[in-house]
Write a structure and sequence with these properties.
- This protein has two domains: about 210 residues, Rossmann fold (3-Layer(aba) Sandwich), CATH 3.40.50.1980; about 140 residues, Rossmann fold (3-Layer(aba) Sandwich).
- The protein has 15 helices and 17 strands.
- Strands 7-6-5-8-9 form a five-stranded parallel β-sheet, with helices on both faces.
- A hairpin with a 4-residue loop joins strand 1 and strand 2.
- The longest helix has 22 residues.
Length: about 375
């Protein structure tokens, strides 16, 4: 797993992002004008600044006023949050990725669990008690939540929820809607959202600017290709094939990598389809992308065993399945803040001539 973290560290160093984060936070605390935040791609939050208050609107119904002093008055309808916060709880791997890339694990005092978690620093903190496991959605341990003593808790409004018990603690709950973003850069831009709460706005802006530049440079290169292969995604589970929609961020990455997704014209972010319907869309796709948690080495034999009809797809026959195993890769743990790396993996498969010959994929590779 060291490969993943060395790539992350190198990305930060190449951008000059490995500056003293503690000094940066102090400087921003003293001079607020240095901490300007501009949102370019994310649609889930907006930012408005005044002399001593930063107004952050999350979605349509959650509003926060970030202040450096409790004495500052805030507009009606806004929840006051004194920043930088010192302690928080993350509910998802996506949220944790924001803290990881900002070198801010010290602020994280609680997570839901460690399944498919690879980061050695976080695991060490869980082991020695600096980070506590508060349980999964719908079954939170409120005593552990209180013991973590968070200034705020970043939540992910979803199907299960289960935040009612936590609300009773009086701790401010801050929705993190990065998972709703349909643009890969929009999802990554939530780095800036977390940066505002922990006093690392400048670092967040610098890190994101580097990601944005690398992503767009490669995207521009891939748009010049003469041939765009087609790609399908997902597989059968419990009688249905969950297919990402044409508006999903993954479909956008396929397009940005110089390929066409088989349901490009779909207006949803994802839906469950019967095999017959998905087969009609995917039968002649050049590539087939699969992400799962397989115990051991996944193979074409395993793919056929899971659903015999899989062998009917062109991508199966021609051995062009693009695969990532979450049991061996920190995909959800770090890919949300590495869309440029994710894009490069796909470009290397669709158009290998566009990347260096010695390129080693980080998340996705052709299944052997």
């Amino acid at each position: 797993m060291k490969q993943f973290w060395s790539i992350l560290v190198m990305a930060l160093m190449l951008c000059g992002c490995a500056a003293d984060a503690g000094k940066q936070a102090d400087d921003q605390h003293q001079n607020r004008s240095m901490a300007k935040v501009t949102v370019k791609y994310a649609t889930g939050f907006t930012v408005r600044d005044s002399a001593d208050v930063r107004l952050v609107d999350v979605g349509n119904k959650d509003h926060f006023a970030l202040v450096h002093s409790e004495d500052v008055s805030v507009p009606s309808g806004y929840v006051k949050v004194k920043v930088p916060i010192e302690r928080t709880i993350c509910m998802t791997a996506l949220q944790l990725s924001n803290f990881t890339i900002l070198d801010a694990h010290d602020v994280v005092r609680g997570i839901t669990g460690t399944k498919n978690l690879f980061n050695e620093d976080v695991l060490a903190r869980v082991k020695d008690g600096r980070i506590v496991k508060i349980g999964m959605e719908g079954d939170f341990d409120t005593e552990l939540v209180m013991a973590a003593n968070p200034d705020v808790i970043f939540i992910s409004p979803s199907k299960r929820g289960g935040y009612e018990a936590i609300k009773e603690t009086g701790i401010t709950l801050v929705p993190h809607l990065g998972y709703k973003e349909l643009d890969p850069l929009g999802q990554a831009e939530w780095i800036k959202f977390i940066g505002m709460f922990i006093g690392k706005e400048e670092m967040a802006d610098e890190v994101f600017t580097c990601i944005e530049r690398r992503y767009n440079d490669l995207k521009d290169l891939a748009q010049k290709v003469k041939h765009r292969p087609t790609v399908t995604s997902g597989e059968m589970h419990y009688g249905n094939w969950h297919a990402v929609g044409g508006k999903n961020y993954l479909a956008q990455i396929f397009r940005d990598a110089g390929a066409d997704y088989v349901i490009n014209d779909d207006e949803t972010s994802g839906e469950d389809l019967e095999f017959e319907k998905m087969y009609a869309l995917s039968a002649n796709a050049d590539y087939w992308r699969i992400l799962n948690s397989y115990p051991g080495d996944f193979s074409y034999e395993a793919l056929k065993a899971s659903e015999p009809r899989n062998e009917l797809l062109k991508a199966f026959k021609e051995k062009k399945v693009i695969y990532c195993n979450m049991k061996k890769s920190p995909y959800y743990e770090i890919s949300p803040v590495m869309p440029d790396v994710l894009l490069k993996d796909f470009v290397a498969i669709f158009h290998p001539e566009l990347v260096e010959k010695e390129y080693r994929p980080t998340f996705y590779r052709l299944l052997k």
